[in-house]
Amino acid sequence: MRQGLVHIIIVFLILVGLIFLNAVGALPPFLDISRRSMGFLSRPIGVPLQVLKNFAVGIISVRDIMRQNQILGRQVEELTVQIAELEKSDLENRVLREALNFKAETPFVLIPAEVITLDALNIDQKVTINRGRNQGVEAGDAVVVSGSVLVGAVSEVFDSTSQFELITSSAVAVNAEVAKSGASGIVRGEHGLGLLFDLISQTETIEPMDRIITSGLGGRFPANLLIGFVSEIRSSSSELFQKASVIPATNLRNLRVVFVVKKSQ
């Protein structure tokens, strides 16, 4: 009890002393010295605390950046897929527009078809399409693409699908002629490796880059379908007939939409 009273008296005297010092103006300098002393003592502690704070902030920032990179990575992947799909759709739309314009302008009766399977490197050179007997397709029908370009002939017909052989197949032979000079001969496939324009009379004129078209002889293929262009003369004047290599007029490995040509009734 007595000690408690003593403590109260001491605290009271300290408060009275502080009030007195403040009244005479002696307390502010004392407080200023105390602040400077506390600031000096706090520096050694503050520096490592600041380092720890910066380290913690850095870890949080790195984590946020990694999370943002993951999100951005997924967005880039999604956008890449979307761009690819849009490019594919644009290509398909362009092909379909060209095909529709061709169908509207051509004098032929056409059956449009989409390519299901295509293996231009296979030795049999066959292409499957989604049109068949039910749609009026028959064996022997010519197959063309936009621009009246001959690409093959139907070889097998099923109810709702058909197969046609590319003109580069050795099984396809076409009566053809040079559009400029009228020189006639036979264009046949060379086992998928290209086209050969053969049996051309030595009296006929044929030159590189001449356009080769169907002649219509024999009735199998309509006349004036574009086959390709002469690339190289492969015979000499001592041979009985002239022959030449022909470049197909279209990329036979990239067929998407084709037309089966029907004879007008």
Give the overall shape: rod-shaped
The H-and-E topology, N to C, reads as: HHEEEEEEEEEEEE
Reading off the top of the CATH hierarchy, the class of the largest domain is best stated as Mainly Beta
Label the CATH architecture of the largest domain. Beta Barrel
Which fold name fills CATH's third level, the topology of the largest domain? Thrombin, subunit H
Which residue ranges are poorly predicted, with pLDDT under 50 across at least 5 consecutive positions? none
Strand order of the largest sheet: 1-2-5-4-3-12
Bin the strand percentage: 25-35%
The portion of residues assigned to helices is: 25-40%
Which structural category do the helix and sheet elements fall into? Answer: alpha+beta
Largest sheet, described in full?
6 strands, antiparallel, barrel
Report the span from N to C terminus.
130 Å
Radius of gyration: 45 Å
Q: Quote the average pLDDT.
A: 78
Number of domains: 2
Give the count of helical stretches: 2
In the CATH hierarchy, what is the superfamily of the largest domain?
Rod shape-determining protein MreC, domain 2
**How many strand units?**
12
Summary, kept brief:
The chain is an alpha+beta fold and 265 residues long. The protein is 38% helix and 29% strand.
